[in-house]
Amino acid sequence: MAVPPCSPNFTDYGTLPRMKNVIRETLFVIAVLMVGVGSMSAEDFQRSNWKGPIGEAGVVRVENPFGDVRLRHGGDDGEVEVAAVLQQLRPDGVHLETRVLEKDGALVISVVWASKPGVEVPVRPEGDHSRADLAVMVPSGSKIVVDAPDGLVESRGVHGDADFRSRTGNIRVHRHFGAVSASSESGSIEAVLLTGETDQDQVFESLTGAIEIWVSADAKHRVTLTTSGSITTDFTLEI
Questions:
Q1: Do strands 95-103 and 106-114 pair parallel, antiparallel, or not at all (unpaired)?
Q2: pLDDT digit string (tens) for 46-77?
């Protein structure tokens, strides 16, 4: 599979009309998060889109150590759509860049530091607030793997098995049609499990964060919860 070419930050690559609401949501979140950080100009933000086939393996991997990842159902056409909003705050020319490539049959979407050719990319300095938030439309039947160490991972209406990982960020799952494995070291996990969505196992794990699961009264789910904290429920549980 040939991945469609993209310019740095894949700026101005095509149009994504179906992403309009998700992009607006992402922009709103960024505006809220950056209140109090300091004054900034419109040039600090870069917005970019990408669209292409998922690949032979049917796997999407998203790696974003610089912000949030939001997933939405992208239809049945086998294509992935990505909208990125990057906030560039470094004065030395080193910048965030979104890359899309095929690796071992999977489509890998990642955010990395980039610099001019021949210039070594330094370690991220303390206090740097550069940020990247991604919204990804995922086709039905995909296997989704997301790693956002310090950002929010949110999935709504996605059709496919998923593995979500974070270190300090929160994880939210709503109307997910497929098996879910979600883990966060100190972030909270919130999931809404409705009857008829899936008969696959749901696994939620947090070392110190809260785990909150919402189910309907007639729910028949198999859920595994692991935490060093307390588990509170309005239903009878076998532990």
A1: antiparallel
A2: 899 999 999 888 999 999 999 999 999 999 99
